[in-house]
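User: structure tokens for this one?
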Amino acid sequence: MEKQTEPRRLSEPEPLQAPYFEHLDQLATTLSQKSQQQLVFSFREYNEFACTQCGLCCTLPWAINVSKAYYEQWNAHWNQHPDEKYHNPFIVLPNAKDHDFAAIRRQPNSHNCIFLTEDMRCTIHAELGEEALAKVCRRYPRTQKLLPAPYAVRYMLPSCEAVPPMYIAENEVFVHWEEDLNLPAGGFHANTPPGELVSPLMHRWIGIVLDVLADPHHSPLQSFARLSFALNYLQDLPLPRIDAQALRRIYRELLNHLQQPADIPLIPRSQHRQSIEWFLGLVGHRIAPIRAYYQGLLSGELPWPELAPDEQVLLNRFMASYLRRRLITMSYIDVFFGRINLYQQFFAMALFAQALQLFAIQARAASGGPLQPEHLYQATNQVESRMGQRRQWLKEQNISGLSPQECIDYAITSLSLDFGTTQWIVDD
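Assistant:
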């Protein structure tokens, strides 16, 4: 296999300017004229993160895989360790590849890494230093998404407890240019399955997303749901006709759509019930207090939660920041999900956003006080660790089997339950 070269930065990160579509439309036009260059999205926290060494990431049910080179470098060392519990620390994968060769073993009857001590410290780090850690452990929670195209995002995985607090303090999106010699010299051409956008069309789509989320007249969940207007428009176009001009037309019509008066919706109670039942299906039977709380709401035994105006401001501010990051990182060769199309990603992100809100509302109820930032931080960690970084999650939900129209309709249903706005709930 030919060795990949590291991209070379050609410019310093600069903040995207609103209106975002117009800025990214200009950049995408420039990008289409360049060879072996890519436009990279990032957030300030990517370079400012400092690990708290809490050890929680070492206790979650994720596969921590290592390369063949790492296995050969360290397997013999640990097999000679005085403490026998570190012997045979790796499990060679059934379809082992050079870059994905073995997984670090877990402690008996636990998700805890074999190298995690009782005081939540890493034995590798303590005895050998940070440079001896597996690549994924050195980088986490930093990660990146790269398409076989001039599109890249560098961001922080919000399953780490230190990441969500950064969402309140920082919301700017940055872009910079890189030279990437791994990209085709003659430009990017792909046999794209239905429901996907080819870079640099993807950059223009991100511009549409950011402008919709910036709409001050709607809550973030309402704005997210309004992206269905653009998705329905895309669905009516044959794939070869989705070009830069088509996205510019969609953008103009979407702006007109967003300028229409925002009526407070009358939401049938059954639609809220469906959204909560989907959430309980995602949670399963593992978190009894959460199931008990929402079953109490559905049965009428518990009062419906009503957020004060300052609580709604907090919820909406955090949700807007979360969605901005999540939707920018919504690419099609996903680190954890595999290949799913634009419409399926839309529904998956709607479930993520709704789950975050419902985890936080239950934490608020359990505390007996108003909504706090910590409720949102903990909810984000739960959503991302239980859903966002579980490779089986997408298959369990069968999202990859849904049609574009099903994804749009289901997303709207899920997003209709919105504690960030005043909604009138009516009986069916």
